[in-house]
Every structure is written in C-alpha cells, then in structure tokens.
Amino acid sequence: MKWAAVAGLVLVLAGCANPQARKDFSRDLAAGNLPAATSSAVQAAGPLDAPPTDLPWALEAGALLRHNGLSERSTQMLDGAEDLMKDDDTRNIAASAGNHALSLVANDNVLPYAPAVYDTVMLNTYKALNFWQLGDYANARVEWNRSDDRQRRAAEHFEAEIAKQRDEVKEGENADLVNRSMSGTDEALLKAGVDLSQWAPYAGYVNPAALYLHGLYFLFNGEEQADMEKARKSLERAYALTKNTQVKIDMAAAQRKAGKLKPAVWVVFENGTAAHKEQLRIDLPLFLVSGNVKYTGIALPVMRDGVPAYPYLTVGRQQTQMLADMDTIIRGEFKTRFNAILIKEIVRATAKTVLQKQLNDSSPLLGTLAAIAQAASTQADLRSWSTLPHNFQLMSVPYPQSNQLTLGVPGHEDIVVDLPQEKRPVVVYVRALNAATPPRVDILASK
Predict the structure, then answer these.
(1) Where would a tag sit more exposed on the chain, N or C end, judged by fewer CB atoms within 10 A?
(2) Which domain of life is it from (predicted)?
(3) Which residue range forms the structural domain that includes residue 439?
(4) Alpha carbon of residue 384 to chain centroid
C-alpha cells in the first residue's frame, strides 16, 4: 500500500511541470514569430476542426487569431473557450472531488484551469470587437451586454470568495498551522520583492477599458434612448475609475443625449503583454519536520509586472494617455485569491510531509523516494492568459481631411492608416504585443 502511494505520486509528476509547449510559445512571441506562436496556440487548444479542449490555450489562440486579422476564426475559438468556462461552472461534483483529491498529492496543475473574472470579461470584449470589426452589430450588442453583466457580478463574486477564505482560516482542521505558516509566508514574499499590500484592484473589480469600450460602442451605434443610457452609465463609471480626459469628453457627449457624433478618430491602443506568474518556492518551518523528513516546502505563484511594447503612440503632437492598467486588474484579482492558494498549498505540503514521515519510519528507502516525489511535485500553477495587454491607452483627434491618419510609434517607422472616405466617427484600434511584432491596426466604424 505504501509503495502504491509513492508510485501514484510519481505517476502524476509528468503533468506537473511547465510544459515545453508553453516555453516555446513564449520564446516565439518574444522573438516576434507570430505565425509560429499562433500555430502553437491553435494546436495546443485541441484537435483541428473541433471545439477546443484546453481553456488557457483557447484563450491564447483566440487573442492571436484576432491579432492576425482572422476575426471569424478568433470568435469561433473564443466561443469554444466560453463553452469550457461554462463546463467549469457545471462540472460533475464527483469528478471535481476526484480532481481535487489528486491535486492534494500532486499540485493544482492537474486541475482544469479555473478562469479569472478578467478572463471572462476580456473574452466577451474581444468577441464584441470581432463582431464590430465585421460589421455584425447585432451580435456585437449581445457580447457587450454579456461583458457588462460579468462586470456587474464581479464584486459580488469576490465578496463571497473573501468570506469563504476567512471561514477556512478560522475554522479549518489545520487553522493553527495555516495561521502560523501564513505569517511566515508574508515575510518570505517581501524578501522576494512581492508586497501584496500594494496590490489593489479597481473599485468593484471592474475592468475600466472593457467598461469604456462598452460605453463607446453604444455612444457610436445606439439605436434608441435606452442605448444612450447604457453609454452614459458606462462612460460615467469609466471616468470615475480612470479620470481620463477623453473619457470625460465622451461622458459629456452621452449625458447631452445628442444626436450623431461629429466625425473624429478615437485611437485605442492595447499595449504590450500583461502581468505574468512566476514560481516562488518557500521552505516551511512546519512542526512535522524532523530527522525522519528529508524535504518539505511549498511553491506559490507570484505576479511579475507586464511589459509594454511602446510607451505611447502619437498623432501629430498628441499622444495616447492611460485608460486602464491591465496589471492592476490582474494583480487585484490575484491578491484576493492568494490566501485560498496559500491555504491549499500549506494543507497539501502537510499531507505530503506526513506521508513521507510515515514511509520513512517504515523504510528509509521509501522515505527517500517519497521526499523526491514531494520535491518534484511541489510546483505552482502558473497558467494564465499571457497575451492580454499590459495596459490600454486612448486619444481622440479630428478626422483628417486626407482620410489618412499617421500614427507615430516611438523608435519605429510611422504607420499610415487609410480611413473610410465617408467621414464619420471611427475607432482606430491598435494592438502591439511587443517591439519585435508589427502592431495590428483595425478600423471600427460607426453605423
């Protein structure tokens, strides 16, 4: 039986490490090899000509297909990702219990990916932008409404999660151990340069960029007074969070409930890649550690800053201004979930260490094998949607008489954008992953 316990732990280790596919993907992105990165993400998402089966890869593939101008394929991939998110909500209880039991002897990498709230909001935002790009205003409206609904439910979701964590710390079977270990972990995190106290989400866990784009869409394309009311509410909330000058101007336009907007160009800039997870290993001073225990420790995900592609874009003497910081959104959610991650990892380390001690008391060889298996399986879950932007920036300029807009990109050649001949309000939507990858420029026109 004891041999079986060690063998079972060893068997699950193959799925614990950061897979080579993810390393290759990151390398291709950093080198500007967008076709290779896109192909890798699409293949890793699941079988070709079938719905995706891997949620993180489906999100990456959906974003990169969009970056390649393949809006319809992007939407199909994101549709599949959304179905996987629904599966996560309704997964069979028995299967879920089995997965969680397995995670206690391995790590959270054996569990299906649990999407963050910002994942769900950005998924519907990208689908809405895809439909807008294609001129499918009816489906764009549906996706904007879904995005807005997810934003409204975010605060309620996290209030429930925080309350649950509080109860686990106070009443759990390992409450004393958890409390002692959590205080020691805070010190270790600070030594590693991670200060969770500085990570605060936007109020209500809202994504101001998604909120602003929702309001801008209905300001551009509203069909009735109710649409203008949607625009007004979203733009007012976005301005309260961002204090961005252009958002204030757009908010005022929605408040006036005026007719058609004057022809102008809004430049929305998705800049760089977002905050990402790295692993931090910490040796714990657990009371179980003794001469009969050769290894014990935990591995935690910690957030590292995202990287901008460029500091800003320019049109003439104007330059884009900060609209929303995606890193703030990601770190804010991560901070709220961190205690749950930490509690589970402490409980997991305790269970593994107890098993290791019991095996070592029976046989030093078994104890050594258990220690090796425990060390190898102590790995953090680093999965995330890595192709989200570092930040969103915004500016608006008059519609040029030449119907051409010249975008200045610091350190690179200017980009000349051909605008519609019929002057009207348009969004020039720019996505730059990094300086090695050419920016993607799309035009989102009003009706």
Answers:
(1) N
(2) Bacteria
(3) 2-445
(4) 6
